[in-house]
Specification:
Chain lengths: 227, 266
């Protein structure tokens, strides 16, 4: 335990690189996932179409998507002998981002949809009477629910940064290329180096905390009279 | 402040892509856990300006990666599977590089009494007779295949074993962790054992039978089948791995004063 503590305090260059790579992969995946999931959830709240209920049910179910399975499917697609093999993306950070996007989109979309649906119930009459376009309705909802959406995004970040099954498969845990905190923890545990594994775990928790606090601070939530 | 944050996060995403030439090689967990890679890779980087990216998997999976063309070369230790790989036309040839050996690990008080066995088959028979807990890799790796062949040599069938035989389906380190937790017997390569950090109540009980020697071979993936593999770099790497310089580094690698690998490339 003391050894683990010292490893964190003396935070060496390799640890820093691994931690930064974790952040880079998950934050990129988060940005892409938000770009997909937030408009989708707004559309589901605002628009009535035939398969709407089914889409919502599927999104909710996919929240529990096992990362290992996602990893395996992405792997099969990106392998040289798979349909997208020519891109040569397997065992690169890009492949890890793809897998994480697939894992966190349903989560963000489902949580976001919950809050947008409640808000839509409030806004419905007003927005209809103003006769605004579909796009304007979605924009209004997304903007006014931004704090709730932040929570959705943070949930997605949490699932992404702590995920190991998928990125282990599609990234391959290559030193200096695709090794991130979670796969490094798995590796060090495998070597019986529990102190180092624990140190990496501390850094992972600190990172998750740090990002959450930073986003709350930037978003100015929980302050003054704002809701 | 917000601008600063946005700019700094953008800088974070701008990946540095100016790198040396890279090559992907699938290696076994036992090779990687030995720590030899940490000695060889920086030297390769220095001598050839070649960045070798290692995918650490079991022999079975390493060969599959080669079949699919997802790696450029393979360094594994399971002769029969390697020869099949070359015969099926996935690899150009098989080049022996070095060998190390397997050892039997078990609880220090040795309930099955294998310490004084003369042959590894006797030791395994003793474990089976005593039905002492035994952890098997169970992951189709080179070590796992070797272990199964040894049970066979002892006239035993691993499929018919009772609950004392636990196939964990994991890498060498994870399997050693399990054995350490269960105080069970396990077969490991010497290097992984010496480097293992969580030995607990386990000790090295049996080694030295020539059957336990473990030959590592280098297999380039055939560019005729997978045109994208970096055949030229692979040849450079093979030449380096079989050079006197590699011999010196491999033979000179020790843990706690014990030599782990013997260079035998021809």
């Amino acid at each position: 335990m003391r050894h683990a503590f010292w490893l964190v305090v003396t935070f060496d260059a390799e640890l820093a690189e691994i931690a930064l790579r974790s952040l880079r992969v998950t934050l990129t995946a988060l940005v892409i996932a938000c770009i997909i999931a937030l408009p989708l959830s707004a559309l589901l709240a605002v628009r009535r179409f035939r398969w709407r209920r089914s889409v919502i049910a599927i999104l909710n179910a996919l929240m529990g998507l096992p990362p290992v399975v996602v990893g395996l499917i992405v792997y099969i697609f990106l392998s040289r002998s798979g349909p997208l093999g020519a891109l040569g993306l397997l065992f690169t950070p890009t492949a890890m981002i793809v897998a994480q996007v697939i894992i966190i989109v349903p989560l963000i979309a489902s949580i976001a949809h919950q809050s947008l649906r409640d808000l839509w119930a409030e806004y419905h009459d007003l927005l209809i009477s103003l006769n605004v376009s579909q796009f304007q309705k979605m924009r209004t909802l997304l903007w006014d629910a931004r704090r709730a959406l932040l929570t959705a995004a943070l949930a997605g970040f949490g699932r992404g940064i702590g995920e190991v099954g998928a990125i282990m498969i599609v990234g391959g845990n290559i030193d200096n290329a695709t090794r991130v905190l979670t796969t490094a923890i798995a590796l060090e545990t495998g070597k019986g180096e529990f102190a180092l594994a624990l140190a990496l775990g501390f850094i992972l928790i600190a990172l998750a905390l740090g990002v959450n606090l930073l986003i709350h601070w930037v978003g100015q939530t929980e302050r003054d009279s704002r809701w | 402040m917000k601008q600063f944050l946005i700019i700094s996060s953008l800088a974070l995403f701008a990946a540095v892509s100016a790198q040396a030439e890279t090559l992907r090689m699938a290696v076994t967990t036992s090779f990687h856990n030995s720590g030899l890679a940490k000695v060889l890779l920086p030297e390769i980087q220095k001598d050839l300006a070649l960045d070798v990216q290692l995918l650490v998997v079991g022999t079975g999976q390493a060969l599959k990666l080669g079949r699919a063309g997802d790696v450029d070369a393979i360094l594994v230790h399971s002769r029969a599977a390697e020869e099949a790989f070359v015969a099926e036309g996935y690899g150009t040839h098989r080049r022996e590089i070095m060998y190390n050996d397997f050892v039997l690990i078990g609880p220090a008080d040795d309930p099955a009494g294998i310490k004084d066995a003369t042959q590894v088959t006797d030791a395994l028979s003793a474990i089976a007779m005593a039905e002492a807990s035994f952890v098997s890799r169970g992951d189709d790796s080179g070590t796992h295949k070797k272990e199964l062949s040894l049970w066979q040599n002892a006239g035993l069938d691993a499929d018919g074993f009772g609950r004392w035989y636990r196939a964990v389906g994991a890498g060498m380190g994870a399997a050693l962790n399990t054995a350490s937790g269960l105080d069970a017997y396990i077969m490991s390569d010497r290097a992984s054992w010496l480097n293992f950090g969580n030995k607990g109540g386990l000790a090295l009980l049996f080694s030295g039978d020539p059957v336990l020697f473990n030959q590592y071979a280098f297999l380039p993936v055939d560019p005729a089948r997978h045109p994208h593999v970096k055949a030229e770099l692979v040849t450079k790497l093979e030449d380096w791995l079989t050079s006197p310089r590699a011999a010196e580094l491999i033979n000179g690698y020790t843990i706690d004063g014990e030599t782990l690998f013997v260079f035998n490339a021809k």
